[in-house]
Amino acid sequence: MRAVLVVAALGSTAVAAPKATPVQLTWVVHASAATDENYKQALELEVTTAGKTKTITLKPQVGALYAYNQIACKTDAYPLGKNEVAKITFYEGGAGGYFVRHKGSAYELVDWFLTDGACDDKKGNFVACPRQEKLVQKLAVPANAQLVDRIIEVDLAGQRTPFVCGQ
Questions:
Q1: Which of 110, 115, 131, 151 could staple 94 via S-S, CB 3.0–4.6 A?
Q2: Spatial distance between the Cα atoms of 140 and 153, rounded to a whole number of angstroms
Q3: 142 vs 15 pLDDT, higher one
Q4: pLDDT digits (tens, 9 = 90+) for 80-114
């Protein structure tokens, strides 16, 4: 009796990392009405995943939306901090706005403000004032999200226009 030896070669297959899920973050800045003496600009964050958009209404902002302060314009005037992935900055005698940060397996939307002045440290020396932060909410985006942000301006007639970084 002959013995037949059958050898099965099992190739090793590497498990591919899950493909990143694209998520578009759109900061929507509305022009202030001419009758608004404080020039408050309504602000929204649109979060688009898999063709579905959720709009988050944020508190109105005061201050200029200078291109040279915007991360979306590839500047470093107000750089992203550790784990931050998107930011919008308004400037009016100090800077503030919102940023999105990756924390653990979640993403957080945070309201921030930084004064223009100096603060005292515990020894009485002048130092840069620390940034103030307030968690607004956690964002419902996949943990493997690949976030891209942009800014859209909306005029008083409701016309949406991409923010121009060259200004």
A1: 115
A2: 24
A3: 142
A4: 999 999 999 999 888 999 999 999 888 999 999 99
Q: How confident is residue 118, by pLDDT bands cut at 50, 70 and 90?
A: confident
Please give the structure tokens belonging to residue 96. Answer: 């503030």
In whole angstroms, how far apart are CA 138 and each of 73, 75, 102, 151? 25, 26, 10, 20
The dihedral sign for the CA sequence 40, 99, 111, 91: negative
Kindly tell me the sign of the dihedral angle through the C-alpha atoms of 64, 65, 66, 69: positive
CA 161 to chain centre: 19
Q: What is the pLDDT of residues 41-84, one digit of tens each?
A: 999 999 999 999 999 999 999 888 999 999 999 988 899 999 99
- Contact (CB, 8 A) for 160 and 55: no
Residue with tokens 């924390």: 103
Residue 77 per-residue DSSP state:
S
* Residues paired with 118 in a beta bridge: 128
Which token pair is 72? 């979306």
Q: Who contacts 2 (Cβ-Cβ below 8 Å, separation ≥6)?
A: none
CA distances from 24 to 46, 53, 54, 103 (A): 8, 9, 11, 18
Residue 14 has pLDDT above 60, yes or no: no
Residue 66 CB neighbours (<10 A): 15
